[in-house]
Design brief:
The structure holds two protein chains of two kinds. By secondary structure, chain A is mainly α. Chain A has helices spanning 10-34, 40-53, 71-78, 80-98, 106-129, 135-162, 164-167, 182-215, and strands at 58-60, 64-66. Chain A is globular. The chains are: A mainly alpha, B mainly alpha. At the A-B interface, helix 1, helix 2, strand 1, strand 2 and helix 4 of A face helix 1, helix 2, helix 3, helix 4 and helix 5 of B.
């Protein structure tokens, strides 16, 4: 889901950089004022976790691969704004050092994987959890948080790729950037994640949350009563 | 929750202690190091099933093969940035060589991500006054 350079037209990646920059600015302020000092080291650990978990490529039917992202569990443990910073750190290093995801497309990738996924995951968790505190309720809420979160990111990436032939083709109708029509890009991205990677992200999120709830429940941002 | 009400002076004192806050921190770092050691699974598993890269992230050569052409704009922008450890050091060589390169990339990335995250947080927290 890391869109490489050249796949998005400037009329796509520039606005997405703008949106992402606005979120970065707010997230920076939130982390500065709201991240408790004792949680500061966890931001770096969360980022490292996201980076490493994304290296575990999993084969999908059709000869491609994918992987879990980790943004959901980070959003539940540290809050969505901290997750935005942690996951963006991952994407910057992946792009600059490993060529995984582009430089021009960094804004788009951060929008999908750091911003959208973090907030969708967190929102789904809060909604499904409701006022419940039972272990089963938390497990289901965390599973759905990961599942819906990664699927939302995949749909966003599929849309961004899929609109390219429509908005950026030569006068002869030859695509200039991502060449796949939206009726291919969107279903492929969505189905891969709905059927496989979403389940993996969901299970990972639920199991890790259960582990942290058992061992270090004070750490979990998403179950603090004061958080709305 | 109480800690959220700490004043920022207090936070900075805590900050200077760095990322070694007791045993839980140490245990988590150990877990992350183990995870880094296991990353070659992320190369071996796809290879067992003959799976390639992620959908839609192909290089221009693969596109040329699949489509018969490389989109103009894509050709211009692709490869604009030469990443030092492109593809996590994978060269399509032997399984063992690739597994080692991949694990080394994992450790390099672990260090890079941790350092960059620490720098960002330090900058953010410094401006808290």
């Amino acid at each position: 889901m890391h869109i490489p350079d050249g796949y998005l037209s400037p009329q796509t990646y520039i606005p997405l950089y703008g949106v992402t920059a606005a979120f970065w600015a707010v997230a920076g302020r939130k982390v500065r004022h709201n991240l408790p000092a004792k949680h500061v080291p966890y931001l770096a650990m969360a980022a490292v976790f996201g980076f490493l978990i994304q290296m575990f490529n999993i084969p999908a039917p059709g000869g491609t691969t994918g992987h879990a992202v980790g943004a959901a569990i980070v959003a539940l443990l540290l809050g969505p704004w901290t997750a935005v910073i942690a996951m963006s750190v991952v994407l910057v290093i992946q792009a600059l050092v490993f060529g995984d995801g582009g430089i021009t497309t960094l804004g788009a990738n951060a929008f999908n994987l750091a911003i959208l996924m973090s907030f969708v995951s967190y929102g789904v968790f809060r909604i499904v959890k409701g006022k419940g505190t039972g272990r089963r309720r938390l497990f289901i809420a965390a599973f759905l948080a990961g599942y819906v979160g990664i699927c939302a990111a995949a749909v966003a990436a599929g849309l961004e790729l899929g609109v390219q032939p429509i908005i950026a083709s030569s006068p002869e109708g030859v695509p200039l950037y991502a060449p796949y029509p939206i009726k291919v890009a969107l279903p492929v991205m969505a189905l891969q994640h709905l059927l496989l990677f979403g389940i993996i992200e969901g299970l990972m999120t639920a199991l890790l949350l259960a582990y942290v709830m058992k061992n270090e429940p004070d750490l979990v941002y998403a179950v603090r009563p004061s958080e709305g | 929750m109480k800690s959220r009400m700490h004043d920022s002076r207090h936070e900075r004192d805590d900050n200077s202690a760095g990322p070694r806050n007791g045993s839980i921190g140490k245990r988590l770092w150990m877990g992350l190091l183990c995870l880094a050691l296991l990353t070659p699974i992320g190369v071996a598993l796809p290879r067992m099933f003959g799976a390639g890269g992620a959908w839609g992230e192909w290089g221009p050569e693969s596109l040329e093969r699949a489509l018969g052409f490389v989109p103009e704009g894509l050709k211009e922008m692709t490869g604009a940035w030469k990443a030092p450890l492109a593809d996590y050091g994978l060269s399509g060589g032997g399984m063992v060589a690739d597994a080692v390169c991949y694990a080394l990339s994992a450790f390099a990335g672990l260090a890079g991500v941790a350092l960059f995250a620490a720098i960002i947080v330090r900058i953010l927290k410094k401006r808290a006054h």
